[in-house]
């Protein structure tokens, strides 16, 4: 117990880690707030720079960026009606009308306090649930991992896009990209076409920077002419009465955030939209009608998306399955630092778990401090014109890709994936599932082959065991439901 | 961005390419170890490529059924250019490609500086003095931070590198 507390407080007592967490949170708020810069983009680029760092230092910085970034998106949603991040889409629905009424300061203040509250609920859920999930995960065999990984891809494909088929395509493409190189079980060449470069595989960090950095920058050119509207920002600290009034709703929507965040593949953006929908249905007398500046419309999505951060860490640390695109990137970072996220992580390196919980708590406190200060400077910085901002992001992306192996080939991969990502985005494909596929693909490949080998390559037995093992059966049911719920047949049945 | 029902210009061609690519990858995956065993290294890539082919075909059919709505007096190519490849985007993408290719030759500092000062006005930043200054300051910050804090060795450039002082390599 004392040992766990020691690890929990590690980032609080070490001045360097304290500074890195603060820096991460501060940077995260700005990165999340500036439209065109996403947390996933920032974490993807950053990971390539932190290879040589101590893993704790890298995690302290990333925890801050993640929490700060999820929150930061709300500021531009309120001030400019441009969500800085997808998780802030719902925030703008009531946040911007509030700003137009001259209540931008109060809206930002309330959002900050509620985000921190939601963040703590998420972290608490992580601290309590992760050890339990981890114990359960020890019972998971290759079959369960196969189903879980498949479910993750299907969930992200179905929830974050408008077309399930395009979502599955993206996930399968990512899994296929991950196959390029030497087969980890036999050492045989796969999809290398005789190229030595391809034998080493394709760096998923280069792919991530390409899909989330370069593609996003190119896509942003369509919105170059969007002009910012200046808002009056004053009275930031919200009255206690206003906060207290919304704590009940925030607790409910934070719970939604934790659960959705913990689902493999579903993250803060979906949690925020579901929480907003919940608030609309459950709050009988909102402060104003929803969509016209209701405080409830701010509280629900903002508590949920920050709570989803803690939730997303649960499957990541206990199962090695990412909760969303950012945690997919963080899993990549853990692998690079020689750690293997999964049930054994909690047993072999419990200090890492408590360190992450401690860093997230610390980042959440910094979020409160930075969230309630410096709004006026912030309002100026987010107005940085895109013609200046976009080329700078490109340069950072190039440095990030080059830093992976000091090899220009990674820069070319990044460029290729960036151009592909742009076309995919424009034609309605999600790029998130591609990255998830790259992380989950090797897990599925290995699990499938291990499960099949355990049955002596008996296809009948392999299929039967999905139904006869309770854990597999539950996961299979969840997977089937995810697919069926996307069909027109199910939607018609539900509407009856 | 993409809207659900009307077809975007070039979407059908893109979907057809997606299907062709998926079919090629299915063949390439099959070539790894054919059907020698159900756990052979080629099985999982084959499953992925098959999933891509099936879902790609589904998207192709859906796209073919959707209607391409052209604005008044606008041709297919004009709409493709306006919605997907406006001149600014094409020029900027060309600059990105040139930048990435010249990174090794001119080195990080020179290539990045040229890229920044050329691309900013291409994207519409007309204040040339400000562009030069912002490029210089941010590059200096990036160079110092990444060289010191992140220990990233940036390319000095085969053409320019030999003439740079040691500090800037």
Automatic annotation (TrEMBL), chain A:
InterPro entries: DUF112_TM (IPR002823)
Domain DUF112: start-end pairs: 18-436
Keyword Transferase: no
Keyword Transmembrane: yes
Keywords noted in UniProt: Membrane, Transmembrane, Transmembrane helix
Bilayer-crossing regions: 20-47, 107-133, 145-161, 198-219, 313-336, 352-375, 387-405, 411-440, 461-484
Listed name of the protein: C4-dicarboxylate ABC transporter permease
From TrEMBL, chain B:
Keyword NAD in annotation: no
InterPro entries registered for this protein in UniProt: DUF1468
Coiled coil regions, renumbered to chain: none
Sorted UniProt keywords: Membrane, Transmembrane, Transmembrane helix
Record-annotated membrane-spanning stretches: 12-30, 42-61, 89-116, 128-146
Domain DUF1468: 16-155
Protein name in UniProt: DUF1468 domain-containing protein
């Amino acid at each position: 117990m004392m040992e766990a507390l020691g690890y929990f407080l590690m980032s609080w007592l070490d001045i360097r880690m304290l500074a890195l967490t603060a820096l991460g949170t501060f940077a995260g708020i700005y990165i999340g707030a500036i439209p065109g810069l996403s947390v996933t983009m920032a974490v993807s680029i950053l990971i390539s720079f932190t290879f040589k760092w101590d893993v704790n230092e890298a995690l302290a910085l990333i925890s801050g960026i993640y929490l700060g970034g999820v929150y930061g998106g709300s500021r531009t949603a309120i001030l400019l009606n441009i969500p800085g991040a997808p998780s802030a889409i719902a925030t703008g629905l009531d946040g911007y009308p509030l700003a137009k009424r001259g209540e931008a300061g109060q809206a930002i203040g309330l959002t900050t306090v509620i985000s921190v509250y939601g963040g703590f609920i998420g972290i608490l859920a992580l601290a309590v649930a992760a050890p339990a999930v981890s114990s359960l995960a020890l019972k998971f065999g290759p079959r369960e991992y196969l189903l879980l990984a498949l479910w993750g891809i299907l969930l992200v494909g179905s929830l974050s896009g408008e077309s399930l088929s395009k979502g599955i395509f993206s996930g399968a493409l990512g899994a296929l990209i991950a196959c390029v190189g030497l087969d980890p079980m036999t050492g045989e060449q796969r999809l290398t076409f005789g190229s030595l470069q391809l034998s080493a595989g394709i760096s998923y960090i280069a792919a991530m920077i390409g899909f989330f950095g370069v593609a996003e920058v190119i896509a942003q050119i369509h919105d170059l002419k969007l002009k910012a509207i200046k808002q009056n920002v004053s009275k930031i600290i919200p009255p206690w009465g206003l906060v207290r009034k919304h704590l009940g709703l925030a607790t409910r929507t934070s719970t939604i955030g934790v659960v959705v965040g913990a689902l493999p593949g579903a993250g803060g953006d979906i949690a925020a939209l579901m929480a907003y929908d919940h608030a609309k249905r459950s709050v009988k007398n909102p402060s104003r009608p929803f969509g016209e500046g209701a405080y409830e419309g701010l509280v629900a999505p903002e508590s949920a998306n920050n709570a989803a951060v803690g939730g997303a860490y649960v499957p990541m640390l206990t199962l090695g399955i990412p909760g969303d695109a950012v945690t997919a990137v963080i899993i990549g970072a853990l692998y690079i630092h020689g750690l293997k996220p999964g049930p054994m992580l909690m047993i072999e390196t419990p200090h890492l778990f408590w360190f992450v919980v401690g860093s997230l708590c610390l980042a959440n406190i910094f979020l409160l401090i930075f969230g309630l200060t410096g709004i006026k400077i912030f309002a100026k910085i987010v107005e940085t014109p895109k013609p200046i901002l976009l080329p700078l992001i490109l340069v950072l992306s190039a440095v990030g890709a080059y830093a992976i192996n000091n090899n220009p080939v990674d820069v070319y991969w990044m460029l290729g994936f960036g151009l592909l990502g742009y076309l995919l985005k424009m034609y309605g494909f999600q790029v998130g599932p591609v990255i998830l596929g790259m992380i989950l693909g090797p897990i599925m490949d290995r699990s499938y082959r291990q499960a099949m080998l355990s049955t002596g390559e008996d296809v009948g037995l392999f299929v039967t065991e999905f139904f006869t093992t309770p854990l597999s059966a539950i996961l299979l049911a969840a997977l089937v439901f995810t697919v069926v719920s996307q069909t027109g047949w199910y939607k018609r049945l539900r509407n009856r | 961005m993409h809207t659900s029902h009307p077809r975007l210009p070039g979407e059908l061609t893109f979907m057809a390419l997606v299907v062709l690519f998926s079919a090629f990858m299915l063949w390439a995956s099959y070539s790894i170890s054919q059907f020698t065993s159900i756990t052979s290294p080629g099985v999982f890539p084959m499953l992925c490529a098959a999933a891509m082919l099936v879902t790609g075909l589904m998207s192709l059919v859906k796209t073919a059924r959707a209607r391409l709505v052209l604005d008044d007096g606008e041709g297919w190519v004009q709409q493709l250019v306006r919605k997907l490849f406006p001149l600014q985007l094409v020029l900027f993408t060309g600059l990105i490609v040139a930048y990435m290719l010249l990174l090794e030759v001119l080195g990080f500092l020179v290539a990045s500086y040229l890229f920044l000062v050329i691309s900013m006005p291409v994207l519409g930043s007309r204040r040339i003095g400000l562009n030069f200054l912002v490029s210089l300051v941010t590059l200096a910050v990036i160079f110092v931070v990444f060289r010191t804090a992140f220990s990233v060795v940036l390319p000095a450039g085969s053409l320019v590198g030999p003439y740079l002082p040691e500090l800037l390599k």
